[in-house]
Specification:
By secondary structure, the chain is mostly helical. The chain has one domain: Orthogonal Bundle (Globin-like). The protein starts with 8 loop residues before the first helix and ends in a 6-residue tail after the last helix. The model has no long low-confidence stretch (mean pLDDT about 90).
């Protein structure tokens, strides 16, 4: 039997296909329910977050969760604060980001301790990226 506590979140989720599913559902939720947040991203002709932005986040998310470090190989260190410095990340945008991610986790069937862990760690990152008062 595999000791789940020794696995990365990437492994506990089931690997790349599952992480890509969550990432896709995250952007679908953003497009459908968080238009102000979606508007902070490059959009396609239909007004949805552009596929290139979706792919870049999926690669980041895979690596952040402990999977292959393709994002770093292609784009360098994430430097999240620096990359988000030109975007006003207010408490409202942080909360919108978390609502979209929470919806994506739920729609992807992430439950239990893993869900709690993911929401806590993602909440920490979202809070760290806030760069406006409030």
């Amino acid at each position: 039997m595999i000791d789940q506590t020794k696995l990365t979140a990437f492994e506990r989720l089931g690997g790349e296909a599952k992480v890509r599913e969550i990432s896709g559902r995250f952007y679908d939720a953003m497009d459908a329910h968080e238009p102000a947040l979606a508007a902070l991203h490059r959009l396609d002709e239909a007004g949805k977050v552009h596929p290139e932005a979706r792919e870049k986040f999926a690669l980041f998310f895979i690596g952040w969760l402990g999977g292959p470090q393709t994002y770093v190989a292609q784009h360098g260190h994430p430097r999240l604060r620096m990359r988000h410095a030109g975007v006003l990340v207010s408490p409202e945008m942080r909360d919108a980001w978390m609502r979209a991610m929470t919806r994506a986790l739920g729609e992807s069937g992430v439950e239990g301790d893993l869900r709690t862990f993911m929401e806590e760690k993602l909440g920490d990152v979202a809070t760290m990226l806030r760069n406006t008062p409030g």
